Amino acid sequence: MNSPTELAPEVRSILESAGERSNADRDRLSVDARSLPDALARAAADGRVPIIAEVKPTSPTADGTRGDDPVELAEAMVDGGAAAISVLTEPDHFGGSAEALERVRAAVDVPVLRKDFVLEERGMDVVEADLLLLIARFVEDLEGLVEAARDRGFQPLVEVHDRGELEDALEAGAEIVGVNNRDLAKLEVDLGTFESLSPHVPDDVTLIAESGVSNPEDVRRMREAGADALLVGSAIMDHDGAGDVTENTRRLTDATQETPNE
Description:
This protein is of the alpha/beta class.
């Protein structure tokens, strides 16, 4: 894990909270997961851009907070064509909860990602989800956590930001990799991050572009660079307003009819 001094203060605070929340002993989960690759393939076959839409009440980089019911938000995203849903379960900085994810997963028929800062194995046994985020930068034993997630039935989504983290993810056996365009050391976003890493990802790995996608042009750019799917939060949630989540999602899922990922 990177030194805490290399991270933005907001991220250091999130990690401290995550460490505290990971200490409680819980029963080991066993999950019957919905396949993300199958869901992405169905979306593409239907002519939709495969979007993982994120239920994110707020964040350290958001301009406001949306207090809508998370189930209503998730259902609106699916109505807009989302291939999968991501739900924040981090409570202190993102306004998320395990209960929200549980309710969302019961209400929708697409895969649901648990988006949180899981630092160790016992942090996995919080709530059933189809996918579990593991951030390569923040864990000591990535291979062990990938295996532990799979043992529970989760599909691990391993997030990376640079070439070294990508190599670590592939060596750990990651089959689903997310490239975060946001540098967590500075909280700066650069879509070129995905473009620089995507050529080094094997074809049999599901590749997801994360962060910084705000409009159809960004969608086209990421798809042309090799993204199998895009994880989008703020552009859909519209934290500084009360935008129509269904229309926000549809605007992105319809974005690249003329330039599909090949």
